[in-house]
Amino acid sequence: MGRQVVCLDNFDDYYDPAMKMSNLEHARSSKGFRLIQADIRQADGLESALGNLEIEAIVHLAARPGVTQSVKDPQTTFSNNVLGTQNVLDFCRKKDVQRLLFASSSSVYGSQRMGPLREDMCADRPESPYGASKRMGEIMCFAYHRAYSFDTICMRFFTAYGPRQRPEMAVHEFVKQALTQHTLSAHGPPDTSRDYTYVSDVIECVTRILDRCHGYEVVNIGGGKPVMLSDLLRTIMRATGVFPEITWKPGRVGDVPFTNADTNKLKQLIGWVPSTPIDKGVIQFVQWFKAIHHM
Q: Which CATH code fits 5-292?
């Protein structure tokens, strides 16, 4: 897009930092890209890393991810996602950054029993510390927007997947099981469902929002087409050519029965909604997985 991009990451060990560095290989070959290793939990470090730059906008994707991990270690989740976000917001205030895009999550909706999930629905009953941390981030974003008037857009992502996906996420884990172990095991009932959003669609939404949205907005980023867990597993079997018996395990604390994004606001704001079907997205993920593992 002709922009100069600075990527700041602390390369923590939530998963292998070498994988993160590998994911950046193509970006690092670009003259318009610069990588800085720093931690948003350290306000002084943030100032030292970015303070001399003239910044048009910040896309704040940094977080301690994962519902299950947040149940095991809520302190790390909150220190990254709440304290870290407050530091980013305060950096925007001090440096007069005029636009912040904040990565929120469908986890803020909790176990809603009615769908599709709209941005104006109740979001004060999250099922996990992760969901709570993201809702707190949204509230802080609103407060800073009101107090300091910079544009702040909170993007509620619905289960992003695709090449370079985190290894503990469902599609990645299931494909790995099928191709390397010839097994499939899943947590929760077969009829649970998720609104899976392919990564290239996520990127298209973020870049359009960056240029077109103003003020304070909360917007869902999802395809609006939930997929049952049993159907996802069948899709992965077809894409991998591996058809094992499925082992069903109990659901995990913090998991919700379904997610389904209402995309009307997204379409109104940017004139487009995610459109990659799950079968196509899974095939592309399988091709990437095989390529990086030389299969």
A: 3.40.50.720
